[in-house]
Amino acid sequence: MKILIIDNDVSTTTTLVALLMSQEAFQIDVAHGGQEGLNKMTANPDYDLILLDIMMPNVSGLDVCKAMVKDPSLKSIPVLLMSSALPIPPEEFHKTLEKFSESSLIKGVLEKPFVIDDLIAQIHKVARK
């Protein structure tokens, strides 16, 4: 299973890669920002899942989702959002999620820190097969 982790926090991505690789033989790529993630997806759109931090400088997780929805080669890749805090008021965030859910892009939101077993269960539940 090929996963792209997009998170500007290097310690988060390093820990996440180590935890995931210790559990299963995932093929994992990392991008340390929204634009880098979009560049990697555009160059190689065969990811089975995107683990995407919501709050990043310059190009946020929601900006990445908006760009993915507009690109036919990316709009079918499932996304699990990761966040330790919502970037906007809860009501507005849920309305935004509903918009993306209609396109079947965002499959869930994981609150940081998360339990690795829960993360792996979510990965298997929503990733492209």
TrEMBL record:
Superkingdom field: Bacteria
Q: Matching PANTHER family, A to Z?
A: RESPONSE REGULATORY DOMAIN-CONTAINING PROTEIN (PTHR44591:SF3), STRESS RESPONSE REGULATOR PROTEIN 1 (PTHR44591)
Q: Kindly give the Pfam families that the UniProt entry links to this protein.
A: Response_reg
Question: 4-aspartylphosphate-modified residues are where?
Answer: 53
Residue limits of the Response regulatory domain? 2-127
Under the heading PROSITE patterns, the entry gives:
RESPONSE_REGULATORY
Is Phosphoprotein among the key words of this record?
yes
**GO biological process terms, semicolon-separated:** phosphorelay signal transduction system
What species is this protein from?
Candidatus Falkowbacteria bacterium HGW-Falkowbacteria-1
Name used for this protein in its record = Response regulatory domain-containing protein
User: Which segments does the entry list as coiled coil?
Assistant: none
Keywords assigned by UniProt, alphabetized: Phosphoprotein
Q: Is the Protein biosynthesis keyword given for this protein?
A: no
